Amino acid sequence: MDAAFTAEQDEIRRTLHELLAKHCGPQDVKSAVRTPVGHDTALWGRLAAELGLPGLALPEEYGGVGCTTAELALACEETGRALLPSPLLATAVLAAPLIAALGTDAQKSALLPLIARGERTAALAVPGTSLALALGLTGANSDGDWAGGGRAGGVQARRMPEDGTWRLYGEAAQVLDGHSAQLLLVAAHTGGFARSRTLLFLVHGDSDGLRRTRQTTLDETRSQARIQLRDTEGELLGSDDSLDIHAALAATGLTAAACLAAEAVGAAAEALERTVAYVKEREQFGRAIGSFQAVKHRLADLYVQVQAARSAAYYAAWDPGAGALALAQGLDALRSAAAEAVQLHGGIGFTWEHEAHLYFKRAAADELLFGPVHRLRGHAADRAGLFGPAPAEATA
Fold first, then answer.
1. Which of 25, 57, 122, 334 could staple 363 via S-S, CB 3.0–4.6 A?
2. Are both 230 and 195 inside the same structural domain?
3. pTM more than 0.90
4. Distance CA 43, CA 79 (A)
5. β-pairing, 122-125 with 183-190?
6. Does the keyword Flavoprotein apply (predicted)?
7. Is 97 inside any structural domain?
8. Separation CA 138–CA 134 (nearest Å)
9. In DSSP terms, which residues pair with 234 in a beta bridge?
10. In a domain? residue 253
């Protein structure tokens, strides 16, 4: 493999970095998350119009840029560095790939160009708190229990015998950008307990019977909502109900993990850089605290950890199969960088007014949403057969 970035990839990173440096500082982030939609719509419009960010990894035939996971991961590294509140993760990383993989030609032609132009945002709604499991990151998603198991709870879908339409009932919590997304991809069970199977449905944001409530979250930069469906009409994603959505979700999960790993690395690197700059200026006993050997050692160890996580994230961008392990390493690095930032900033680092707490909350919330780290590593070890036969071999 050639580990060097192309001129186009470097240009994507540079342009995005410059734009976010001007318009997405810590105060801009705090202002954006307190808006009704939870992000700066004007900045999102510029990112879509000038950089084609929502459609970066979508095919050109649907209005996308036609790039790969590598370019999307590089973009996520920069958005992570700035802690950009945006629909990028929910729309471009989670929802759009599922529409591209499972949708009919008519569905893809109708929806993907709107997503690529930034005119429509989308979100994946998974019942309960099982997003990581649904994406196959912390365990096998094939049994479908993460979607309610066909029993009470989760979301249920019923096909109406009169006209063949689908009606959805139930609720999903912790839906990323679910309160503002114009399109929802809802995972729902159908077939009853005996023949239960999980399917994905398209639900438009203005549908009758849809109730959305924005939730208070630990990390305000990742807006979440509770979705309630009360006899809400949904459109089956795909041509029929025999599609293997578990495999599509798992494939999307690996790509998402690579992007999330890069995002975590960007946030960790920025937290480290801000901490290094601070210890060069803060003085104790007549000298900068960064000159003390103990501080140097702590920051040197952290630098090595962040660089190792960056290497893992870049490898996962080239080979998404390593996404879960790269994400685990990225989350570890971000947690360490955020903790050191709070500690080495001293008393000011513990205040809500300082930006250090933004990185600390991102680290904690990401592990709750997409981890925990030990389960990411444990499932990756199981898939590789590290401690015994891989699941596929064991059942053969």
1. 334
2. yes
3. yes
4. 12
5. parallel
6. yes
7. no
8. 9
9. 166
10. yes
